[in-house]
Amino acid sequence: MLINNFFFEDLINAIYKNIDPHPSFKKVEFKVSFERDKPSLNILVSDGVGGMISPILYFSAAQTNILSLSVFLANALHAKDDKENSIDVILIDDPIQSMDSINILSTIDLLRSICLKFGKQLIISTHDENFFGLLQRKIPSDIFGSKFLQLKKFGVVASVGPILN
């Protein structure tokens, strides 16, 4: 039970379920193994009826990315500085690699709700212009106080105004 709390397993599973996970394997579990010379930590996923697999062996790139993002976000939400103060900013580089449109929309909704529910500032970098446009539409500046910047050329950043319908 201690390992589950250390890795925030419940929060990982809550996040994972919000981004349309694998159709069968929906529960993330951490298992420690002492079978070899050195202990190992394994991330496994279960289907709820006894089946358990290693996601790295069976998941697609998008499914693995969703799982990785879930683990990252759960840990980022609990991050503290060296004085045990909560770190209220999360930096993410291209969180949607290999995802289909449904998972991209679910990810944006999740990121928006994390900002609102946990009071975190989120800084996302991306080279994907479609994702950038979706972020502008789903987290608009006039409602959420979002800021959108574009790199015009090396060292030159420009603020981007809201999308007008």
TrEMBL record:
Claim: Hydrolase is one of the keywords in the record: yes
Domain of life: Bacteria
Name of the featured protein: Exonuclease SbcC
Source organism of this protein record: Halomonas citrativorans
GO MF annotation: an example: exonuclease activity
Keyword Hydrolase in annotation: yes
Key words, A-Z: Exonuclease, Hydrolase, Nuclease
InterPro entries: P-loop_NTPase
